[in-house]
Amino acid sequence: MNYSEQTILRVLLDDPRAVAILERHLPGATAHPQLNLALDMSLREIAWYPESGLTPAKLAALVTDLKEL
Q1: CA torsion 52→23→41→31, rounded to 10°?
Q2: Going by C-beta distance under 8 Å and a sequence separation of 6 or more, which residues neighbour residue 54?
Q3: pTM above the 0.85 mark?
């Protein structure tokens, strides 16, 4: 799978390897109480929300690691 900033969160959550990378960059993200609100959003869309903790630097690092899958 080719992951990018445009990848929908629901797609990432279907891949255990991607979940591990997501948790490494954003610990607790997959247990966030508002996770269901973001399931159909891309990583880039999620990054617009400050409460996501997904800064531009974290987003870039996350996508770099996801592209290695």
Answers
A1: -80
A2: 26, 43, 46, 47, 62
A3: yes
Q: Which residue has the tokens 């987003």?
A: 59
Per-residue pLDDT of the chain (69 residues; tens, 9 = 90+): 799 999 999 999 999 999 999 999 999 999 989 899 999 999 999 999 998 889 999 999 999 999 999
Q: How many residues does the chain have?
A: 69
Q: Which two tokens stand for residue 6?
A: 């445009």
Contact between 54 and 26 under an 8 Å Cβ cutoff? The reply is yes
